[in-house]
Amino acid sequence: MAERGVEALLVSVGRDLPYLAGYEAMPLERVTMLVVLPDGEATLVVPALEAARVTPMPGAFTIVPWGETDDPIAVIAGLLEDRRAVAVGDQMWARFLVEMLARVPDLRPVRAVDVVGELRILKDEAEVGALAAAASAVDGIATDLQAGRIPLLGRTEAEVSADLSRRILEAGHERVNFAIVASGENAASPHHHPGPRVIGRGDLVLCDFGGTMNGYCSDITRCVSIGTPDPEVAEAWEVLRAAQQASVESATVGTACQEVDRAARRVITEAGYGEFFIHRTGHGIGMEEHEDPYMVEGNDLPLSAGHAFSVEPGIYVPGRWGMRLEDIVVATDSGPRRLNTADHGLAVI
């Protein structure tokens, strides 16, 4: 904060709050706000009816509950005193910031990611352990999917998505973040919403799923062919697998994030599928499914030990089929470490 000229940090709904204080605010109209000052003093302003959910941490922050007839914005403004350069969390509700601006019109907000982001982007040993445990849990589900132990044929995408969601919870996750199931032509839409389409013979089925386990996220994508795939699809999958492998191998400490993207894109483009790779190669992961650093053209940030991110190139042919292959990777001083180990072949069931 001192280096950035930030006089106060305000974090509310979002993952910065549990990262710093171990408490996740309920996404309600009642404001919860952690106010952190450069001298280390921190105050958690929280609705009185939710104060019992907070684990007290004396020496880390002070809890200030507010009642239903109190004005919490006034309380927060009072804590700021004459401080005006404040960093606010990316997920803070606009209504809270608008109310703060009305109360303190000369407030100068900047993004909290410029402060907290530098802490969260580097995962320590315990955080990598949590990510690895979450990855292992969904690896088991992916393996069952590839082995045909999760029925696909004759079920709707929505039914399979619900099945995956149940298994994610049974594997130890607290919540399901997403369970994309896209079959046939629907898989050409990278973020397809599972619907009523019935999975049939000859379909290529893309499954991208993950959740939150002990505060940290999982994210994996594998594809299954219902019956022997068309030769074009089989060929494209081998291109995709080679692209993903090249991208993972490139993710060494000191390498720019954009080079990890380029490594995958180069393989796919040289094989003639470049126009069908329509998204970045990866995103950071931690307490959020998507966070810094991003593996995308234009990001020249060098990888450091402790950076955790997805490597997920894809090929999407509109109106026909789509495929993606995704693992979570951690940059280490001894080279890139895959956290997902489920088979990388195109499963045929």
Give an account of the 3D structure.
This protein has 349 residues and is α+β, with helices and mostly antiparallel strands. It has two domains: 8-119, Creatine Amidinohydrolase, Chain A, domain 1; 121-348, Creatinase/methionine aminopeptidase superfamily (Creatine Amidinohydrolase). It has helices at residues 16-21, 72-80, 94-103, 117-120, 125-146, 157-170, 231-250, 257-270; strands spanning 8-11, 33-36, 42-47, 62-66, 85-88, 108-111, 175-183, 204-213, 216-217, 220-225, 282-284, 291-295, 308-311, 314-317, 321-324, 327-330, 337-338, 347-348. It has a six-stranded mixed beta sheet. Strand 11 and strand 12 (291-295) form a beta hairpin. Helix 2 packs across helix 3 (94-103) and helix 7 runs antiparallel to helix 8 (257-270). The protein starts with 7 loop residues before the first strand and ends with a strand. The model has no long low-confidence stretch (mean pLDDT 97).
Number of helices: 8
Number of domains: 2
How many individual β-strands?
A: 18
| CA gyration radius, whole angstroms | 22 Å
Shape: elongated
Comma- or semicolon-separated keywords:
349 residues, alpha+beta, Creatine Amidinohydrolase, Chain A, domain 1, Creatine Amidinohydrolase, 6-stranded mixed beta sheet, 5-stranded mixed beta sheet, 8 helices, 18 strands
